[in-house]
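Much of the work behind modern protein science is quiet bookkeeping, done one molecule at a time. The protein below has been through that process, and both of its lines are reproduced in full.
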Amino acid sequence: MKHSKTGAFIFSVAVLFASVETAKAQGISQAARDWWVTCDDELYCVAETQGASASDTDMQLKLERFNKPDNRIFVTVSPGLKLELGMRVDISVLGADYEAGGKISKIYKGNEMAFIEKTRSTLLSKMRKGRKGQVTVKYGGETGTVVYNVSLSGVTTALLMMDEVQRRLDRVDAAVAIGGEPSDSLSTEREPEGDEIVGEDGHEDQSEEAYAAANPQNSNPQISDFSSEIGAGGLFYTANDLPEAVIMPGYRTYGCDMEGPMQGFGARALGAGAGRVIYMIPCHSGDVNVEHYVAMTAPRHGNFANTYEFELPLDFNQPNRLTIINPDYDASTETLTSITYSSPNFDCGVYEKHQYVAESDFFELVEYREKTDCDGVTGPPEGFPLVWTIDELGQ
């Protein structure tokens, strides 16, 4: 829904339909990493992503902004469970030790509440710097408190898209592209790109059907159809064999050489139960080590595919990795393993085991083995010397 300002954490609204009259309406509907940005013909923009709780109840987190100088940005929470006045809602950015929240004093159509933020607010700044966040709703009663996990990867890109479409580039009221121009000036007008789908109300145009209609040469299956037919899984050798939401991160996020690795090694898709599908997509080729990214489609992710990072042992003091080498997934145990060989003879290297944690929707490193002596003696990597295990943390 559309919001207007009354104050931070004060949830009331008066709908405004103001826009810069001299600006030609040019909307968009396209992805921004894990978010989707839609701007309608009045240049009212919404960026949204799907979140989910450990019990698979869903929630949408949105950023909304009218095309009006100095207009506030609405951080909107829309859960599947019913909101009531007086409930407390908090948004936290994981790893940043930051949380903002307040009690609901207004519920909008569609079971929504909103935080009303200045463009340089602390909440928006922290969201832009984070990768993962949580929305906590204290429903009370039998439901109690529900924590929804949500991706923040793409917030900055989404806000920049809004700046561009609403022609705020280099203006003082831009969310990202901040400059010295006054807030009522207009940046250079932009022409929509060929893969942008725009309709009368924007929100409907993010569908796979709309993309297929605008791109008839694209034959990617819909996520729902693919999930229902995948069964035990299989190998796929062209990008069009897999859902668009699974393939696009390879181009936009990881910079993969998609065609060569796909043709040479194939992408694997494995049914993981409860409508979930795990995808292991070859990104860069190698003699014995093939780099992959991992994605999942699931009811909790809606029309999006979630992608994952991978840990190293804590005492390595290294950041998480975006890709994984020679992965394999065991649906019965929900473990993802990786083998990185240090020799073309397959006689040494590193073996890792990552356990899927449904509550947080990520893969947690639980075991790390390494054989450093490339002695010509081959054996199962599961037998490499144990270097680290999560049991060392007392968990």
In short: The first strand starts at residue 28 and ends at 32. The radius of gyration is 23 Å. The first helix runs from residue 122 to 129.
